[in-house]
C-alpha cells in the first residue's frame, strides 16, 4: 500500500513515498488530505471538487454524522448502496478516485468541557447537538460498515490537556484494548478483499513512555496495521525501527507552511491542514512557493520578508484586474481577477469564498510538489532555510468579517463573550432617533394621564 521511494539514513528525516490503493489516485508523499465538514471541503460542492480542485484525498470525521446516537440510529448507519460500495463514499457523493480517510474527531477538534472526557470504553465527541459519548465498540462497527479506504483507530487523545504519568499508563492500556478489539472485529467478519486499511493512533508522548503499546503494534498487530496516526511529534523521536516503513498521517494542526516543512524534516508523510480553510474564511489568498523566489536586494538594503498571503479585504484590490497570484493556473486566477473577488467578499457572495478555497488548495498542491522535488534533488534542507528567510513566519491577520460562523465553529470562550455573527442588517441612525422620540412621547402621555387622575380633574 505504501512504498518509500527515497529516505535519509537517519531515523528522522524527509522522505519520498507513494500511497497506492486499488481504484484510487496514487498520493505522492509528502502531501495532504482535504479537511471536510459533514463530508465536503468547506465552500466546495462535490461537482466543483471534481471539476476544479486537485485534491486527491479527504479526511472525514465520524462525529459529523452521529448527532443523536445512540438514542436514534444515524441515517448513515442505515444506508447501504445496492452495489455493495462504500456507504460513506455514496452518502457524501465523493468521487471514486479520491482516497477516503475516516477518523473519530475533526481536526482541529472542539475541546471537551469535562476534565476527563474519555473513559475505558468511550471518548467524548462534539456533534451538531453538543457533546456525546462514542463507544469504542460502536466506532469500530461503524468504521467497518462505512468502508472507507483508510480508518484511523480510536485513540485516547486528551486534546488540550497535559498527560501525567498515571494518565499516560491509562491511555496506553485503553489504546491496546481498543486496537485489539477492533482487529478482532475485523477478523470475525471474515472479509479480506476491499477491507479498509487500519492506521494505529499514537499517544502524545514518546514511544518509550508507551512501550507496551509499541510492543503490541510490533509483535501482535504487525501485519494488520498499515500506518500510524500522529497527534504531535513526540513519538517520532524514538519510533521503533519495525514501524519505520509504515505511512505516517499527521493530525498535528500546522499553522503555517513553516510548520509543515519542520514536520516533513522529521519524516511526516501525509498532513491534515486546517489553516487552508481558515485563510479562506479570513479572505486571504495564500501566496507562497517552494523553492522560494530569488530576491536580489539593492546594496546594503534590508528586504522585508514576503507575506504568506494576500488580504483581499484591502481597498487597493478594488480596481486591480490582476489574478490573485501572478502565473497561477487555478480556476480562480485564470477566470477572474482581484477586483471581482473583493466585490464578492464585500457583498457576502458565497462565490468569493469558493474561488479563494480553490486557489488556496492549488497553492498547497504546488507547495507540496516543490517539496517532493527538493527531496528528490537532495536540496530540501537548503530550500527550507531559504524559505524561512524569504517569507514571514505568520499568516496575515484577519481584517474582514468573513462568512457567517457555522456549526462546530462556535467555540465557547467563557461567559460574556460577544456574538459570533454580526447582524446582517442594522438600523440607520435616523430610525433609531425616531424610535427614541416615539418612546419618549409614550412616556410623557402616561405621566400626564396619571397626574390628571390623581388631581381630580373634571375629565376624571
From TrEMBL:
Might you report a single GO cellular component term? cytoplasm
Q: Does the keyword Zinc apply?
A: yes
Q: What InterPro entries does the entry give?
A: QTRTD1, Queuine_tRNA-ribosyltrfase, TGT-like_sf, tRNA_ribo_trans-like
Highest taxon, organism lineage: Eukaryota
Q: Tell me one Pfam family matched here.
A: TGT
Required co-factor(s) are:
Zn(2+)
Q: Mention one GO biological process in which this protein takes part, according to its record.
A: tRNA modification
* Note on cofactor: Binds 1 zinc ion per subunit.
Q: Keywords, A to Z?
A: Cytoplasm, Metal-binding, tRNA processing, Zinc
Which Gene Ontology MF annotations are present?
A: metal ion binding; tRNA-guanosine(34) queuine transglycosylase activity
> Which part of the chain is the tRNA-guanine(15) transglycosylase-like domain?
14-391
Tell me which family the UniProt entry assigns to this protein: Belongs to the queuine tRNA-ribosyltransferase family. QTRT2 subfamily.
Describe its partners and assembly state.
Answer: Heterodimer of a catalytic subunit and an accessory subunit.
PANTHER family per UniProt: QUEUINE TRNA-RIBOSYLTRANSFERASE ACCESSORY SUBUNIT 2 (PTHR46064)
Quote the function comment for this protein: Non-catalytic subunit of the queuine tRNA-ribosyltransferase (TGT) that catalyzes the base-exchange of a guanine (G) residue with queuine (Q) at position 34 (anticodon wobble position) in tRNAs with GU(N) anticodons (tRNA-Asp, -Asn, -His and -Tyr), resulting in the hypermodified nucleoside queuosine (7-(((4,5-cis-dihydroxy-2-cyclopenten-1-yl)amino)methyl)-7-deazaguanosine).
Q: What is the protein's name according to its record?
A: Queuine tRNA-ribosyltransferase accessory subunit 2
Amino acid at each position: 500500500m505504501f512504498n518509500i521511494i527515497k529516505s535519509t539514513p537517519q531515523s528522522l528525516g524527509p522522505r519520498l513515498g507513494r500511497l497506492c490503493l486499488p481504484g484510487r489516485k496514487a498520493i505522492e508523499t509528502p502531501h495532504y488530505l482535504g479537511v471536510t465538514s459533514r463530508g465536503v471541503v468547506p465552500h466546495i460542492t462535490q461537482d466543483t471538487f471534481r471539476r476544479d480542485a486537485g485534491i486527491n484525498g479527504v479526511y472525514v470525521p465520524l462525529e459529523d454524522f452521529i448527532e443523536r446516537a445512540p438514542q436514534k440510529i444515524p441515517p448513515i448507519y442505515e444506508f447501504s448502496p445496492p452495489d455493495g460500495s462504500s456507504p460513506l463514499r455514496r452518502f457524501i457523493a465523493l468521487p471514486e478516485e479520491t482516497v477516503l480517510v475516516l477518523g473519530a474527531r475533526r481536526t482541529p477538534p472542539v475541546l471537551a468541557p469535562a476534565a476527563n472526557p474519555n473513559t475505558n470504553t468511550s471518548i467524548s465527541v462534539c456533534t451538531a447537538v453538543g457533546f456525546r459519548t462514542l463507544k469504542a465498540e460502536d466506532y469500530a462497527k461503524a468504521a467497518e460498515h462505512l468502508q472507507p479506504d483508510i480508518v484511523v483507530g480510536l485513540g485516547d487523545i486528551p486534546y488540550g490537556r497535559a498527560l501525567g504519568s498515571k494518565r499516560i499508563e491509562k491511555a496506553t492500556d485503553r489504546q491496546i484494548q481498543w486496537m485489539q478489539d477492533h482487529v478482532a472485529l475485523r477478523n470475525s467478519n471474515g472479509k479480506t478483499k476491499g477491507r479498509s486499511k487500519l492506521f494505529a493512533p499514537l499517544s502524545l508522548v514518546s514511544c518509550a513512555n508507551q512501550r507496551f503499546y509499541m510492543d503490541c503494534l510490533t509483535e501482535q498487530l504487525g501485519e494488520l496495521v498499515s500506518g500510524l496516526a500522529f497527534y504531535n511529534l513526540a513519538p517520532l523521536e524514538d519510533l521503533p525501527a519495525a514501524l519505520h516503513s509504515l505511512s505516517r498521517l499527521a493530525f498535528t494542526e500546522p499553522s503555517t507552511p513553516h510548520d509543515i516543512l519542520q514536520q516533513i524534516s522529521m519524516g511526516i508523510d501525509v498532513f491534515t491542514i486546517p489553516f487552508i480553510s481558515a485563510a479562506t474564511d479570513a479572505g486571504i489568498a495564500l501566496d507562497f512557493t517552494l523553492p522560494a523566489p530569488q530576491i536580489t536586494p539593492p546594496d546594503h538594503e534590508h528586504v522585508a520578508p514576503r507575506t504568506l498571503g494576500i488580504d483581499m479585504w484591502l481597498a487597493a484590490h478594488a480596481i486591480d484586474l490582476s489574478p490573485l497570484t501572478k502565473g497561477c493556473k487555478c480556476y480562480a486566477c485564470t477566470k477572474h481577477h482581484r477586483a471581482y473577488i473583493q466585490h464578492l467578499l464585500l457583498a457576502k457572495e458565497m462565490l468569493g469564498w469558493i474561488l479563494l478555497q480553490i486557489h488556496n488548495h492549488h497553492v498547497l498542491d504546488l507547495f507540496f510538489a516543490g517539496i517532493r522535488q527538493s527531496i528528490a534533488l537532495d536540496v530540501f534542507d537548503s530550500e527550507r532555510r531559504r524559505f524561512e528567510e524569504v517569507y514571514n513566519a505568520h499568516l496575515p491577520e484577519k481584517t474582514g468579517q468573513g462568512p457567517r460562523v457555522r456549526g462546530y465553529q462556535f467555540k465557547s470562550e467563557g461567559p460574556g463573550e460577544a456574538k459570533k455573527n454580526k447582524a446582517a442588517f442594522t438600523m440607520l441612525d435616523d430610525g433609531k432617533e425616531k424610535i427614541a422620540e416615539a418612546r419618549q412621547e409614550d412616556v410623557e402621555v402616561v405621566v400626564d394621564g396619571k397626574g390628571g387622575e390623581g388631581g381630580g380633574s373634571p375629565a376624571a
